[in-house]
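STRUCTURE:
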């Protein structure tokens, strides 16, 4: 009974972490470019009462008797499915149709990656994120520029007074990874590369690396499916209740054994 108490407790702890993940997904259902997480579980160590394959006789071997000791949360997987697009009309809002991440430079000089394309200009005309991080490669738009256009392949052009043709100001580049699900989330809609994700592969949108194209005047919504998250919440609640019932039954059985001596 004591073993059952701890085993069921591990299940309750795992489902609590599952519910925390669901809560974070729902809280960010309106966050541009957010990628939902899915908690993964793994079973814990097994107690070998009889080791599988142990010889019972010269002709037969035992199938074994193993008792599992519960579960635990092993990892949170980042789901990289495409989110819906929301038309904003802002010429500096960009959405990625397909794979890839925008590159931004953090205040400490490191490069971070994001799917959130709600950009604007700072006081120097440089394109930056909502937090003021510079988009890489740096693109500066003159203050007197009009009709800023960003093509699906990342080419930024604008009309400059006194010039007969549109001026090309730069090209937005995207980054991709061998394993995007292994990126390290640091908040602020930003990811950092890790040993699990591999090194960044940078290229203009729509290139040979399989990167997506850009949609100007749109933002990509979170890829959280609210209905699916509510279903997952119910499943987590039922699993939690089942484990708590095991704790209650094991406690009753243990109480009955204690009362046998009276």
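SEQUENCE:
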């Amino acid at each position: 009974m004591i073993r059952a108490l701890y085993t069921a407790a591990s299940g309750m702890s795992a489902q609590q972490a599952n519910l925390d993940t669901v809560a974070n997904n729902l809280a960010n259902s309106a966050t541009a470019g957010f990628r939902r997480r899915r908690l993964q579980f793994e079973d814990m160590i097994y107690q070998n009462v009889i080791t599988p394959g142990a010889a019972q006789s010269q002709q037969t071997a035992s199938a074994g008797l193993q008792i599992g000791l519960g579960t635990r949360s092993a990892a949170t997987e980042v789901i990289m499915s495409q989110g819906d697009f929301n038309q904003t009309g802002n010429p500096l809002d960009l959405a990625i149709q397909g794979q890839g991440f925008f590159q931004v430079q953090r205040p400490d000089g490191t490069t971070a990656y994001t799917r959130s394309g709600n950009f604007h200009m700072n006081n120097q005309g440089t394109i930056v994120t909502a937090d003021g991080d510079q988009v890489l490669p740096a693109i500066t738009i003159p203050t007197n520029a009009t009709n800023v256009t960003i093509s699906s392949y990342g080419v930024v052009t604008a009309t400059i007074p006194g010039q007969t043709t549109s001026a090309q100001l730069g090209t937005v580049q995207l980054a991709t990874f061998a394993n995007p699900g292994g990126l390290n989330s640091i908040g602020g809609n930003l990811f950092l590369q890790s040993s699990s994700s591999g090194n960044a592969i940078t290229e203009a949108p729509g290139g040979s690396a399989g990167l997506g194209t850009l949609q100007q005047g749109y933002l990509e919504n979170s890829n959280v499916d609210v209905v699916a998250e509510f279903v997952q919440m119910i499943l987590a609640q039922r699993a939690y209740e089942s484990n708590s019932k095991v704790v209650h039954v094991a406690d009753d059985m243990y109480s009955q054994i204690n009362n046998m001596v009276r």
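REMARK: The longest strand covers residues 71-78.
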